[in-house]
Amino acid sequence: MHTDEVLELTGEKNAHMPGAVSRRKFLGAAAAGATGLAAARALGAQEKAADHKPPAQKPADIKTNIDSVRNIPRTKDSMPGRYPGRVIKIATPGASVEGKINAARAAEAVNRGMAELTGETDPAKSWRQFVSPSDIIGLKINPIGRNLLSTKPEVVDAIIAGLVSAGVPKSNIVIWDRRHFQMIEAGFTPERFPGIGLLGTEMKGPNGDFYDEKGEMWAKDNIDRQAPFYSADVEMKYNKNTLPMMLNEGRESYFTKIVTQKLTKIINVPIFKNAGTTVTLCLKNLSYGSISNTSRLHAIWTKSVAEPCAFPVLRDKVVLNIVDGLQACYDGGPGANPKFIYDANLMLFGTDPVAVDLIGHELMTQERIGRGIQQFEDKARREFLDIAAALGLGTAKREAVILKELSLA
Question: Structure pTM?
Answer without folding.
Answer: 0.89
